[in-house]
Amino acid sequence: MELVANYVDYNSQQSLSAVLRWCDTAGTVPLRDVADVAKRQKLLEQWTRYAVMRSIKLEMHLRGKEWEGLFADSISGTAVTIHPSLTRVGRTSYTIQNKVTKSDSQQPLATVETVMVQLDASLSKAVPLTCSDELRNLCRDVPSLAERLPETFAKRPATEECYLWACEVRPSDCDLLGHMNNANYATLFDDARHAAGYGVDVKLAHIDYVLQAQAFEKLTIAVWRGMTELHLNLEMINAAGATVARAFMVTFDPLSRL
């Protein structure tokens, strides 16, 4: 699926959220291969109305300056292509991997692996997928990002050992399901790490979505260093002290071009 990158997409600080927005737009593309029209429509409704994101793993293939340079000569927008593949179908969840490339050259920009969970009409309880056999027939065997990113997240240290950044969910941050869109979590995490002074470009990221943030909800994001200078941990906390989302990031080594 081809899209046009515009506005803040050119800013390397917003590159993570830009990529996630593009992948959201292409999320239902694999369903085009479902031959049965009625089942295809049922799956489309199921995915767009009752599926929420559980986690995202992301690899950026360009550093920030390279990212900005890629779009520097564009006036009306740069075309990018999303290549989605359904890679796993479980009882209540499925995984989609998106390869993001520049359209005219197929230069790799990012790889995004998303786990979605099917919920009931109240958006509070996971339920079995419908037409699961049709979905399994669409699965492709592609290399996963799982080996490069942890499945568990670091425990948040004492408050005095973290940088704390306060924010509030705007109505425009929310999607049709009434909660903050997944790409805007990445925006807030990026804003928080830049405010904390960790502005080095991100190479790998893993975001875990725990709760659904709502419009006008006040949030605090804790930021702290990981096991090395290249590792960064973030945790989004609501006013009640509960974890809303958490992230682990690996930055590019500023001393290396690899």
From TrEMBL:
Q: Which Pfam families match?
A: 4HBT_2
Q: What superkingdom does the record give?
A: Eukaryota
This protein's name: Acyl-ACP thioesterase
Q: Which residues cross the membrane?
A: none
The record lists the lineage as: Eukaryota, Sar, Alveolata, Dinophyceae, Suessiales
> Which InterPro entries does the protein's record reference?
HotDog_dom_sf (IPR029069)
